[in-house]
Amino acid sequence: MSRLLQHWVAEQARRRPDAGALVFQQRRLTYGDLEVQSNRLARLLREAGCARGDRVCLLSSKSPETIVAILGVLKADAMYVPLDPGSPVARAEKMIAACDNRWILAGGAVGPTLAGLFASPEFARTHAVGWLDATPPPRGVDPRFSAVDLATYSAEPPACRNSEADGAHILFTSGSTGTPKGVMITHANVRRFIEWAVPYFGTTSTDRISGHPPLHFDLSTFDIFGTFAAGAELHLVPPELNLLPHKLAELIRRAQLTQWFSVPSALNYMAKFDVVKQGDFPSLKRVLWCGEVFPTPALIYWMQRVPHASFTNLYGPTEATIASSYYTVPTCPTSEDEVIPIGRACDGEELLVLDEAFRPVPPGEVGELYIRGAGLSPGYWRDPEKTQGAFLPYPGSATPGDRIYRTGDLASVGADGLVRFLGRADSQVKTRGYRVELGEIETALHALGTLRECAVVGVATQDFDGVAICCAYVPLADVAVTPASLREAVAHALPSYMLPSRWLAFDELPKTSNGKIDRRKLKELFAPEAVSAP
Question: CATH: 3.40.50.300, 1.10.3720.10, 3.30.565.10, 2.30.38.10. Which one for 348-424?
């Protein structure tokens, strides 16, 4: 029998049906609840025509219903595609079109987005909505079914035909051409990481685990299935707390969380507002982060105040499934300048630091970081050209399908054997834990039709974002634009975390000797006193 992601919930429900599985605000679901509700949804989807391998988009706020939907889609032998509920309609439409699906499961405060999508007669003709909430659906949206219909379906698990090699979900990342890229992740990809992580971190059924990242972000995959594999309890963090550091700290205390996992910006934000007391969070055993560099001063702050917890840096792109390397910090750093390694490869993974000829670089020298192993995605959904450009044959291997993934990150291997991340090799940045292609922002700005030239660069900062997205622009002749008007206009095409926060107007963008835009010079010019904010 194949070991699929949903089987962890089924096993816990069989052994411990009344054990807590999921907590969100004042609501609590047991493993028995999760199993029954997801079985009913799977049967409903099957009856509605959802077939093996179909893609089912989730346009829903973080909630217990969305977790049930994830499990129900998997039990229907389909792939779930979590979408950012805050995405502009145009961007959501691109992702839905790219995965070529029929079903959209929706819930929460997504009324305007749904209404915008279904305003197109063609979209309405080819797509159907399942409304996950017990509340009425948004005006103008006629769902094929709603949550109240689930009770009429059997709670017995449907027979599944999927194997571990089948896709579990598609996660969209920023694309340099303006079209988001869909990364397909299999059941086996996720299971391999979870089966390493749960024993390594010692996760047990007594753990209470945070669910901080949004569900369209791959870190949430570890929260969800790492929790269910251990039979622990997942505490979903309401998104509105992300910019309220005092409230985040209160949640950790009140829920007596034993594990916190997030992008570093959330931890950094709590440190900057000094919300962590000495000896705080007595139940907290583990603090994990991934997605970007955690500033060492903030790490020192946390380790000094919560000395009873372990602190682990995880590293890995979406294409390699959650994380590919780990480094548990042995002692509190003594210097704020100390670089925290990304460490060693997780079980089943391999980190390779190679030169331009794909040869390993000597210890201490800089090369490009590649990943090999069990976590590698099959590739980008229905995009063989991008797949072949990023997933390369392993040099010298005679084994078919032996591949490496080009991360675009620069790294070095120290004499201690630990890998250290040194920055990006291309135009991609990470901000608030999101991976952003600066080219996608430029594409959206050019599409406004008001600029003659523009260039977007990322500049490291010590604030919440970690990287400031900066836009240099040259308006068209006789066209009046301001940073505020540009930001407002481009917000219709991009999510908030991709909007530039610093702006500079030019008569002509600086160029290099070969006529290319001088991005290095632009970074120098984006000093705080030289920029405009909308």
Answer: 2.30.38.10
